[in-house]
Each structure stands twice: as C-alpha cells, then as structure tokens.
TrEMBL record:
<dbReference type="InterPro" id="IPR023753">
    <property type="entry name" value="FAD/NAD-binding_dom"/>
</dbReference>
<feature type="domain" description="FAD/NAD(P)-binding">
    <location>
        <begin position="3"/>
        <end position="306"/>
    </location>
</feature>
<keyword id="KW-0274">FAD</keyword>
<dbReference type="Pfam" id="PF07992">
    <property type="entry name" value="Pyr_redox_2"/>
</dbReference>
<keyword id="KW-0560">Oxidoreductase</keyword>
<comment type="similarity">
    <text>Belongs to the NADH dehydrogenase family.</text>
</comment>
<dbReference type="InterPro" id="IPR051169">
    <property type="entry name" value="NADH-Q_oxidoreductase"/>
</dbReference>
<keyword id="KW-0285">Flavoprotein</keyword>
<protein>
    <submittedName>
        <fullName>NAD(P)/FAD-dependent oxidoreductase</fullName>
    </submittedName>
</protein>
<dbReference type="InterPro" id="IPR036188">
    <property type="entry name" value="FAD/NAD-bd_sf"/>
</dbReference>
Amino acid sequence: MAHIVILGAGYAGLGAARKLAKIAPAGTQIDLIDRNTKHVESIELYQVAAGTAKADEISFDIRSVLPDNVNFIQADVSKLDYENKTVEFSNHEPMTYDFVVVGLGFRSENFGMEGADQYSYKLQDIPTAEKIYEVINDNIRNYKQSQDPNDLNIVVCGAGFTGIELLGELIDTAKILKAKYDVPEINITSVEMAPQILPMFDADLAQYAVDFLSKNGIKIMTGAKIKKIEPNAVVYTKGDSDEEQRIYSNSIIWTVGVSGSDVIKESGFNARRNRVTVTDYLNVEDHPDIYVIGDDSASMDPKTDRPLPTTGQLALAQASVAAENIAADLENKPQQKFSYQSKGTIASLGPSHGIAEITKPHLKLKGSVASLAKRFSFEQVLFEVGGLKGLRKK
C-alpha cells in the first residue's frame, strides 16, 4: 500500500489532499499534516490585522472538511530526510513516505533589514494579524494620555498585494477608532521602494487604486528605499540621494515580502528564499517522489523564465496537477506537465471597493463591481479547499 504524506493544510496541501482522496488507487494511505488544527484563509489575514474580521471568520477546522480516506495528524514538521524518504517532526515520531507533497506555506521575509524584527509587526498568520490590530487600537486609545503624535501614525512598509489590501481596510478602521476614542486625525502612510504600486495591473486600474487610497487619506510614498527600522521610525532614502529621512510611528507594519517555509532550508534543498525550483511536473529533479507546491515552490513561467508569483490561485492549480501526477505514477501511467493560465488578478481596497483584471473574457473592473468579483473569487477558492462544508462554515 502506497503512503502519501502531505505537509501543510493551506491552499496547496488541502487542495492536494482532497484531489488525491478522489483519484488515488484504492488502499492508498493519505496523511495530511499541519501544526495547527484549523485552516486559515491567508488571503483574508489583512482583515484581522485591520480589526474588521475575527480569526474564526477566516478559518475552519481542517478535519471537518476532509474526506474519510484522508487522515489528519497535528504535528510540527522540522525537516525532510529525502535520502531515507522520512519526515522528521519536533513533536511526533518520524514518518516514512512513498510520495511527499510539500505545501508548508510562507513566512514574512525581513531581507536582513536592521530593526525589522524588533520594531515592526509582521503579518503572516492569525497571531501576528491579531497583534497588529491590538497595537493599532492600543496606541490610538493611549493618545489622550500620552499626547504622543506617533500614537496616531500608522506606517505600512511595502505596497504589494498584502500592503495595499491592508491600507484599504484601514480606511474604515481609522474612522471607527477616531470616533471611538475621540482623537484627532489618524495618519496612515505607505512606504514602497518601487516607483509605482500594483505594476501587475493595467495602468488605469493601478491609478484608480492610488487615487482611491489618496482620496481617503492614505499617503503613498513610492521610490522610498527603507534603510532600517528604529523603535518608532522608518528610516528611508529617496531616489539617488543617500540622505536618510524618517517617518515616525508607534504602529509600524511590515508587509515587504515573504519566503517559503524554513523547513526547506533545514532540509538542505537547493532553494532561493526557501522556494524550490521544481520540474515541469512539479516535483524535485533529483527526487521525483517529492512534490513542492504553493509558497514553497518556484514554478517557472516559460514566457518570462521567472518563477510564477505565488497566489492561492496558483497553489490550487499546482495541487490538482501534483495529485494527478502522483496518482498516475502509482498506476504506471504518463504524467502531465504543469501549465498555468491565471484567471485574473483582484485587489481589495476596503470592504466595498477594489480593482480587478479578468483574463477570459478580458475585463477591467473598478469599485464595488470589483469588490463583488473579489468575493466571488474568494468563495470559489473556499469551495476548492473546503468543499460545501467549508463554504457553509464561511
């Protein structure tokens, strides 16, 4: 009897587990392993960080959505010993496998930035998201006693998807907290090294996002290269100048970038930022029994010869093909190459605004229509990872 071990119950791992449950040969043992008992909709973490959603609104119990032929084991993965086809854990006995699917998700990346870990708050999971809102709320509440203007300043470092969606959500949060604690204006600033935000969108859509955020009080600083984080300040330079400038805040949020799981590094994989370059079949060149998908995978785009950007949409597409290739291998059938076509790109700008570019048919959406498209897209993802049970729980 073949033994398939799936590491991680995020979009990639849950997607692979649910697909293998349907297509793996009868008698195959499928074990899904995660250190938590709940699946978190990580694309919604920014809502928890802004205080507009609670943790249980963006998560559900993993066991509750698993088919009967998938076993769930709560354990914390420490490394893969791929020479001996063994997974090692910090709190569980080692486990051997015939095939392993690695989908352990992401962690916030500080890029070696001085002070980033000590003086800013990263957004990578439920506890860090809850901490961010706690800090923002406490600082604003504290202002009347402290009279420290930095208590009313919020700085978001990085204007990628996470940063932009958090900024959009903070618009309403700032209004609510301002009224609740009867304080002066709350200032929210985005600090981004790139010359423009959201370059993956059509220029008109990106400009719509800039205009919307600016109109709602968000200050967007592009071309600002962060040099270090101090206890209450982001230190940066502009353009070609080496002159250091500071923007002060007691609520500094770090959304500059992510890398794959540190298990990749601990296992000795050849990887960059903990992302393993996989073959066209989504497995590892020298170890075809190891499939790496989601945030831990560098799946190359043949058009650009660069890794595809990691998204929930990509993770689910990889999960489906990896599962099919494992099932094909078990039945001595030919495998299929992974070919990816994005369905589109959507960014939220708060609960009722957004921008969207849909691939087929090609559509560009703004405002509330884009927000509806985001909700529909999210529910599609939720159905793929949790089925009807997951959708009902949401």
